[in-house]
Amino acid sequence: MATDFAQTLDAHGVAPLRRVAATTLQVNVGRRCDLACHHCHVEAGPKRTEAMSLETADRALELLAASPGIATLDLTGGAPELHEVFRPLVEGARALGRRVIDRCNLTTLLLPGQEDTAEFLAAHGVRVVASLPCTSSGNVDAQRGRGVFGRSIEGLQRLNAQGYGRAGSGLVLDLVYNPLGPSLPPPQPQLEARYRDELRALHGIEFDRLLTLTNMPIKRFARALARDGRLEAYLALLVNHFNPATASGLMCRDTISVGFDGALYDCDFNQMLELPLGSRARSVFDVDSLDELAGAPIATAPHCFGCTAGAGSSCGGSLV
């Protein structure tokens, strides 16, 4: 089985993989989370202490101001809302006129001290991208923890109460699906229709789009597959379903990923594997503008087959 991603790109005539002008700055504010999901490539959890400093967050905002081509600040974690830099980053980016995404696990909205978070997100027009890997409690709880489905539904209802997912509100609520095991996501449009029908009928929940993501064979998920003797088979599945049509839309081409310590990466997955942007270690303190990174080569490894298998996978859902 050939697992050299760069060679595969070359063999299909879509190499080399290089950056275009960045449009999204994705910032991982820290790895603390109230959940410890089986598929989490960040290995986030309640006991994680890594967190972005206010100094690093301020520098990210300075670079955002100095990089007019970047229209969106995409905040992730861990659970972003649990970190002290989350609200300053939201407020700072909105003051610059940039769009903001909050990658929310929904259950944080119910935690003590987070009672006003849904209202805060609505007040600042933040787009919420929320994890919901299934519409049934058994599957969600098996992947994310006992009782998580019920709390997720309550979180969605709180967002709907603020206007999220409601026609004409301007408040965007997207949901994220990822497979429960080592398989590729089903076609996104058909799955979205099923989600919409079931969530509306059973819970009165409305949302805008469903985004399908492929589980990355790294960190926590990779170890679970290895324990079950299924890692090689999953890698083979990804390699055998390589789709060259996905290459032009890969998120690493127009997204810059920033770690909690300010280090720069081509994507959140490379960040977790400590593969620096373009294979050259740099941080937010080493560049004057993020626009200068256009044209840089993109660091790749076998896990990249996860983003190019089948219909493709990105933080914005399927690619083709």
Structural account:
- By secondary structure, this protein is α/β, with parallel strands linked by helices.
- The chain has a single domain (5-308), classed as TIM Barrel (Alpha-Beta Barrel).
- The protein is 32% helix and 11% strand.
- The chain has helices at 5-11, 54-65, 86-95, 117-123, 137-144, 148-161, 188-203, 219-227, 231-240, 268-272, 305-308; strands spanning 24-28, 72-76, 99-104, 127-131, 173-177, 209-212, 255-258, 264-265.
- Strands 6-5-4-3-2-1-7-8 form an eight-stranded mixed β-sheet.
- α2 packs parallel to α3 (86-95).
- The longest helix is centred in the middle third of the chain and has 16 residues, at 188-203.
- The model has no long low-confidence stretch (mean pLDDT 94).
Main β sheet profile: 8 strands, mixed
The outline comes out as globular
- Would you report the number of β strands? 8
Spatial order of strands in the largest sheet = 6-5-4-3-2-1-7-8
Radius of gyration based on Cα positions: 19 Å
Q: Which percent band covers the strand fraction?
A: 5-15%
CATH class: Alpha Beta
At CATH's second level, what is the architecture?
Alpha-Beta Barrel
Topology summary:
Elements: H1 5-11, E1 24-28, H2 54-65, E2 72-76, H3 86-95, E3 99-104, H4 117-123, E4 127-131, H5 137-144, H6 148-161, E5 173-177, H7 188-203, E6 209-212, H8 219-227, H9 231-240, E7 255-258, E8 264-265, H10 268-272, H11 305-308
